[in-house]
Fold these 2 entries.
Entry 1:
Amino acid sequence: MPKRKIYLDYAATTPVDPRVFRAMLPYFNKKFGNTMSLHSFGQEARQALEESRERVSELIGAKPEEVIFTSSATESNNLALKGIAFANRKRGNHIIISSIEHPCIMESARWLKKQGFKITRLPVDKYGFVSPENVKKAIKKETILVSVIHASNEIGTIQPIKEIGKICKKKGAYFHTDAVQSFGKIPINVNTMNIDLLSASSHKMYGPKGAACLYIRKGTRIEPILHGGGQETGLRSSTVNVPAIVGFAQACKIAKKGMNKEAKRQIGLRDKLIKGVLSKIPGAHLNGRPKNRLPNNANFWFEGVEGESIVIQLDLSGIAASTGSACSSVNLEPSHVLMAIGLKHEQAHGSLRLTLGRWTRESEINYLLAVLPGIVDNLRKISGNIGDEDKSSSSSALS
Amino acid sequence: MVIRPYYSKEVIKRFTHPKNFGEIKKADGVGRVGNPRCGDIMKLYIKVEERDGKEIIKDIKFNTLGCAAAIATSDMACDLVKGKTLKEALKIDYKKIIKELGDLPSIKIHCSVLAREGLKAAIKNYYERQKKEKR
């Protein structure tokens, strides 16, 4: 066992950076005002809120008034899809998403379908890549919104957002991207990348849970889904969670300052990890592209082993990893992302996601590379290669 | 309220140190259940011996491709029926396997059902082979 537990699941959530934590503290019990109050407590909180808005907008080249705060990326994505759909239903009823979106996009789209909207799910290639050409073909006169995830939370594939955005602009459809995994990790500019709406979350980039944002380009027609006191220019009623938002803003400030250097450092570790796993473990395969993937993401599938059993064994060895998205751990279906890139069920069930972060060190990668081959080997002994015997078997046939 | 860990101590113990995995080369009955779709495949091998006119499971082993719960339930199922008569073995239900494991997450209960199905399949296969021999 390593002296300290090794965390390689930064795509699930990240620890709060100590600098973020310190910035938040006064807002719990000293500067605790309600941003809607007229007295000095309220105005102090409002000042912090507006300064936070500036910090967050700076990271994506947006104007502060184009950013609204929410409680989670799930909320931001729900607002983007449902808000655009209902505000623009007179213009059209068609929405396009990719087949590797996060569940909060897919489920929002599924719900909108029940309300009478038409949904197109774009296919991806074997690397999880959405072709701009396919977007062009799928856009119709009635298309009001296209939503494509910037970087896959599971396999790390970075999409050609700029090209897709350009097509949407030309065709007059709004373009939304779920940038939860890329925000603060790789450069984003909403103007040069032709983005109309963008979702991001604090807890994936060393901020606290409970804060997120939706960038909405000025002039975009959108309806709120939460109605009430009219906070966030009426688009998101709710008392503002100032401490969390101050933390989110501080996390953005830190991310902006060291982004390129940190990305480079993580790419070095990631490539070492990928190379090590593929060379040390027979029957190991990389999911997604070798390059052009998130600096911190590695995702594999292993022949003759089930992913969850690897995760449990790694945990017992002091390493936290994931089979895919943490959200999919509640059902037994293999990852829809891995199925969309063409993996078979047994291959998708054998997947392992390792995601690095600000505190990942080379010694931790070395430790992982030292224990993982043995874990896979042991599990293969238990399975005795029975998966290979009859791949077409899908019943409880007797041998 | 104390949240119990996802897997019980016994499940982890069985998963990390299964006693009964491997193949019986000249098995008297073999059962293979599950499918790649659900992610779990189990194969159980039994060796049967006649003692005082009763058919007894003398040895039982498994190969399982699956999650920690699938491996632990396979191992537990083997222990529960070893030395038992075939009739006794057929009476073991999935709840008994879960009870002996401490507990299983509700989403993994199907693993214990699969282990029992594997056992039933191995015994059924044994009976079928017996019939053929008698002909």
Note: Chain A touches chain B at residues 304-306, 308-309, 312-313, 316, 330-332, 334, 344-346, 349, 381-387, 389-391, 393-399 (CB under 8 Å).
Entry 2:
Amino acid sequence: MTDEQQLVAKMQAGDAQAFGEFFNAYAGRLAAFAARRSPLDSSAIEDIVQQTLINAMRNLAQFRGESTLFTWLCQICRNQLADVRRKLARQPEMQSLTDVVQATQANVPVQLLEYRDPLDECAADSTRSAVRRSVNALPPRYARILELRYGDDLSVAEIASVLSLTESAAQSLLARARSAFRDGWCADDDSGSGDLHGSGAAAAENPS
Amino acid sequence: MSRHGSSNAGHEPADEQALRRGLHAEPLSPAAMQRIRAATEAEWRATTRLQRKHGPWLPWAAAAALAMVAIGAGWWVVSNGARADGAVLGQLVRTTGVVNESLSFGRVRPIAAGSPLRAGQRLQVVGNALVDLPDGGTLRLASATSLQILSAATAQLERGVVYVDIPPQSTANADFAIVTDAGEFAHLGTQFEVAVQGERTQLRVREGEVAWRRGELETRAVAGTSLLIAGDGRSTRQSIATTGRDWAWAEALAPDFDIENRPLAEFLQWVARETGRRLVIADAATEKRIAATILHGSIQGLTSLEALSTVMQTTALHFDLLEGVIRVSSRGALPPVSN
């Protein structure tokens, strides 16, 4: 049984300290995960994170350790974001997001080890949009490790733990990801495209 | 900024700087994280309670419980003298859950409504709670808050969210302050909220002014201002709304207002303070009508805005909720109020 499985088991047994550990370790990162993938305001992100964690509590028994706990939470969060986007697209005017979120049924998470998970590109400034577009174009493993390192500000040791890698493997993967990002980013710059020189109106990818 | 080469500004290469900027997400406020925690914890407790109810290990649990009772009884004998008998900070009025006092050996004792809260007590709040301060004012505690009472006028917020409401004219609670790792937040006749989440502390001022003191330094924050203080002491100031959902939890804990034989003017002032709005009277005739109106009945169990709606229906007055304002006017062409 992994540490994360043990943590979940303790939570299922009603251990308040385990709940505290779980919340402190994941809630903030989950909020950042959601915010990077959505142009919604902070109160909507709060609703999404809250609903994600509530759904996670309802489905704790389904976590079997086939992915990391955070990956599992991200999958629930992704479902939540997709639901909100779909509903907002159907009813773009005068729809309370609170109602949308509250009306959402519990999402049973699907455990995925590798996923395509685009960042939202409608960022407030053009550099941010351009970076996110470049990261979105990378293989998922690269995008993931860059997000952990530069978005969540995790150390290489922490990343290794999250991704179940050795530290040297994590370091190597990070170096390759940075190199791939640099290549794509510079190529984008050389082509003169993108928001650095343009209007800054990049469209968000539709997550699937 | 060029995308090529290293940055001149710092030691970090340009691509890493860009990645940090591009992938950075503004964290949610400590108060928002606290709300999420409270909702998640409530769901977790409900879920685990349900699982335990149907669990196959009841006999083992019963045996363990008996063992715990035996051990607990021993501890109780050893540590029964630990109850606080310090100066009274306030009185627990009501809670939507339970307020526990942490005792020695990890024991907790639920505090009953009506009990005094004394210096020396450490409180763990499950569900929101309302505390009356002596000589006016209230302290409102959000779920999952952990608070230690240091004196009759000081409480240390270890985790969670507290809302302090001390009327501007009150002098009895002049020294009241909330202490956190980020420093001391002293009221200057005001309503404000302090939230502690991890290493971050957030002050949000709804009315009046608050002094944030850290060592020899003092910073003031006025109504409509938020100070977000990071673990390293750096602070960010920004403007905030004094109405809206961020204050809803505190409004829901408003103390009961007894309207029987009270002037309408007093009631309107109370609603305005409770909802963080300014009271605006449309004209002199309306002001005269308000001054002449005495209320009867009860608004117990209603939120402040529900109470406003209910009370105003019984008068010849009309109210509008505008941005940060309650505007009261006379309805239609009514005869003037006689003195």
Note: Chain A is about 65% helix and 0% strand.
